[in-house]
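Memo to structure team: turn this sequence into structure tokens by end of day. - J.P.
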Amino acid sequence: MAALQAGAPIAIPLPSPMPYTITGTEAAAVNSAKGRAADQPVGLTVRDIDVVAPYLDVAEEVLPMVRWLGESEMVSLLAPVRPGGPRWLRPATHDGMLFFASIPWIPEFAGILAEFGHLYMSSANLTGSRPTTTAAETRAAFGDRLLVVDGDRLRDGTRPHGSTTMVRMNSCGELAVARSGINNAAFGSDSAAYATDLAKRWSSPADTSR
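Reply from structure team:
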């Protein structure tokens, strides 16, 4: 917590099957840790969807779907954002779309995100390299340049891990995969089939935990 309060990014894992992440209060510091331009757009992680809901340019009836996608399906989202929002949205906004995640954190670490409400986040890897999925891999990639929070014992090491799938949503709630990831791995190269599957399961309440 002290490192984050001081503006330094840390490496912390998300729940399985997600990777380790670089997380911080300053978007530029997260980007710099990855070896990329400090002003490159970066993802936002939020305590829950209510943190960003007032700024999303989506129909009111679409918001429950946004919550389900982030908190139950654990995908990252690209959603239209209204102009004039708070400054902390800007590093995660590009071409009118907000890149964010509301994935629940591992319970032992959830208090960190609850304290800040929102943080900037990206997968724990140097640009061009594979995201790290264990504390040892993360330390090997970043050495002593980054504090690594070891959460391996809280994750399922038997599962494949990888970056989240990024799902693009329009104002009406239509879905498309903007970046493939671990969430749609079972669908192979057919990312459209995964988006269709999400939409079908959302429209069938018996198949969703709502």
